[in-house]
Queue: 4 jobs
Job 1
Amino acid sequence: MQDIDLYDLPELLDSNHRLLGLDPGSKTIGMAVSDRDYKVASPIGTILRSKFKADAAKLKEICEERNIGALVMGLPVNMDGTEGPRCQSVRTLAENLHKIAGFTIPIVFWDERLSTSAVERFLIGEADMTRKRRSEVVDKAAAAYILQGALDALQRRSDR
C-alpha cells in the first residue's frame, strides 16, 4: 500500500465526500466524521474490536452510509518522532483494509501524538466528567481530535 499525503486528498475526493477519522487502539476504534466542507470533525462512535473481518465490515458499512471518500488514521508516533510497534499495528490495519477487506478509498495517516491525553485532560478539566463517562467517550473524541488536526492542516494549506 502506497502512503498518500494528506495534502493530495482534495484532488482525490468528490465534492459530496466526507472523511472518516479513526483512532485505532487494541480494544476499540474511535471514529469521527468530517462535514462536506472539510472544516469540522464530529465524533460518531466506537467499534469494540473483535475479529478483523467483522471490524472491517462495520467500517465499510459506515463508509457507505456516510459517503466517506477517505480515511484519516491516527498514527501513534513516539515523542521523539520514531515509529514503534503501535505505529506498525496501525499501518498493518490500513494495509489489511486494502488487501483483505477490499477497501478502495485512500487512507492517510495523521500524527496523533498526545491526542488521547489531550482529550482526557479536557474531559477531566473542562468537562468535569467521571472516569466511567470519560471511558465511554475518549476514543471517539480522540478520533475527532485527530481528524480535526488533519482538517485544520488542509484548511491552512488552502488559505495560502
Note: The mean pLDDT is 85.
Job 2
Amino acid sequence: MNKDYSWIVFSYKAPNEPSTIRVRVWRTLKALGVVYIQQSVCVAPDTVEVKKKIQSIKKLIESNEGESLFLEINKFTAETEEQLFELFNKQRIAEYEELLEGCKNFLNEIETETRKGKFTYHEVEENEAEFGKLKRWHKKIMKRDFFSCPNSVHAKQMLDECEQKFGEFIESVYASEGNVEGEITKD
C-alpha cells in the first residue's frame, strides 16, 4: 500500500453494569470495522466517521463510569501497517465469503423457482426482500472495507449476477401473468 494512513487506537474498560453498555460499545465498534489487537483495545483507520463514532463511544463509556483512552497515531512502521492491513482484510474476507454464500443461496432459490415455474408476484416480493438484504449487507461490508479486500470484486460481480437473474425472473413472472412491465391493463 502506497498511501500514508493515520490511525486511531482505542482502549476502553466498559462498566460491568448495565451490560447493555458493553454490548452497545462492542457492536458499534464491530460495525465500524475496527480490529481488536487485544481485549478492549482496537485499531481503526482515522476517518471522519470512525473518529466521530469512537469519540461518541468514549463519552458513553465515561458517562457510565467506565474508562477509555483515545489515541491518534500519525504513522506506524511499514511492518506494523502491513500486519494491520492483513488483519483488516482477514475480517473482510470472512464477511465477503458469508455474503457470497448468501448470494449463492439467492441464485439457487431463483433457479429452483424458475425450474418449478413458480412465476408469481408473491415470489417476486419474497425475492425482492431477500435481494434488498443482500444489497444492504454488501453496502455495510464495503463501508468498513478500508483497504480494498481482494474479495470485494468477486462479491460485487456475484451481486450483479443476482440482480441480473432476479430481473430475468421478474420478466418471466410478468410474461406468465400476462403483463408487460409498465403496461397499464384496462379492466
Note: The mean pLDDT is 93.
Job 3
Amino acid sequence: MARDDDPEPADLAREREREWQEIIENFGDRAVLEPGDEPVVDAPRRAAPDDLDQDDLGATAAARDQVPPDEEFVPPTPPPVPRPPFDRLLAWTGVFGVPALVLFFIVVGVTLPAWTGLLFAAAFIGGFGYLVIQMPDEPRDPWDDGAVL
C-alpha cells in the first residue's frame, strides 16, 4: 500500500508536470468543439393553442387524468395550532408586542408619557427574562431532530 510521503515514480511525476503545464498554457482559452462532438437533441415541439384540435385536447387531458379521482392522494387535515399557556403567551406578547407597539407609535407620531416608556421597557425585559428562565436546563437528545411522523 502506497503512503502519502512515498516519492512518486518518475513517469507519474513527469505526466503530472505535463498536465499542469498544459493547463497553464491553455488558461483562459475557450474550448473549441468539433461539429461531430455536439450531441443532437430533438426538442419536442409544443403546439400553440390555435394549432390544437379537439382530439389533441382530449388526448392531453386523458394523459393528465390517468389517475382515477378516488385513488388521488388527499392530505389529512392538519391539527389545530397549539395554544401556549397563558404565562408564556403573556411573555411572548411582551417580547414581540411591545416593540411592535412602540414602532407603531413612532410611525404615527404619538408622544407617550415617560412612565409608559418605562412600563413598555419593563414588559419587554420581564417577558424576555421569563422565557429565558423557563428554558430547560438539560440539553435535548442529540438524535431527536423534532420530526413527528
Note: Residues 86-133 form one domain.
Job 4
Amino acid sequence: MWTHRSWQGRLLPHPLPARERLRHYAGWCNAVEGNTTFYATPGRETVATWAEQTGPDFRFVVKLPKVVTHDRRLTDVDQPMRAFLDAIEPLGARAYALWVQLPGSFGPDDIPTLARFLRRLPAAHRPAVEVRDPAFFTDPRATRLLEATLAETDAEWIPFDTTAFFTDPPTSDAERDAWTKKPRMPSRVVALTDRPIVRYLGRDDPARTVEGWRRWVDATATWLREGRSPTVFVHTPDNADAPTLARRFHDEVRAQVPELDPLPEPIPAEPTTLF
C-alpha cells in the first residue's frame, strides 16, 4: 500500500495523479508490500510505471495472487504464475521477494506441496513464505519441517507479529474491525536467510505501537550487525500514521547501528512558500 486517504494532504500532496503516488510514498519509505497483486495480476504497463516512480534500490515484496495460494493452494498454477511473473518483470531487482501468504488451513501435511512449488520457482526470484497455521509455531516437528523445506530454496519465513495488537481489547472502530479479521499469530524472532522480512501490527495509539516493537528493533539491529538486510513493515489497524511510524522504527534501529543509511527525505505535502 502506497496511498491512504488519511495521508492525503497531510503526508502526501492532494490531489495527486495516480502515476505520482508511489513516487511520493517512496520519499517516506524504501519498501512496500505489494498487497494489491493478491486480488488481481496487474498489467505490465502498470508495473512499468511502478518501476519508473522508484529508485533501483526500492524493495517490492509482491504478494502472489489469491488464485495461486488460496484457491488452488499451489497446485496446477503454471498459467497464473507465468502471467504473474511476466507482469512483474519490469520491476527487475526491485521485486525483492515473492510473498507467498498461505491460508490458515495450509498446515504441516501440506508441506510437500509447498516444497514442490518452491522448487519450480525461477532462481531469479527469492520466495518468502507466511504461514498461519498455529501448528508451525507450537509443534517443534512442524517448525523443523517447514524450516528445512524453506532452506532448500533459500526461502525466508515471514512472521506476522500480532501479539501487541491482541494484548488488550480494541478501543477504536478500526481496531474492532481488525480484531475480527487479523490472525492471532505468535511472535517468532528468527531469520533463516540474509533477507529477513517482518510484518508487525501495532495499535492505533502510536505509543502502544512503539512499546510493542521493541523486540523487533533489537532483532533488526542484530541482523544488520550479522550482515543481513532486513525489511520491516509497520502496520496499525487504521494505518493513519504508518509512514511516520516506519520512519521512527528506522531511526530507533539507526540509534543502535549508526552506519545504517537514513531513509530519504519526504517530498513536502504542500509546496514551500516564502510566507
Note: The longest strand covers residues 95-101.
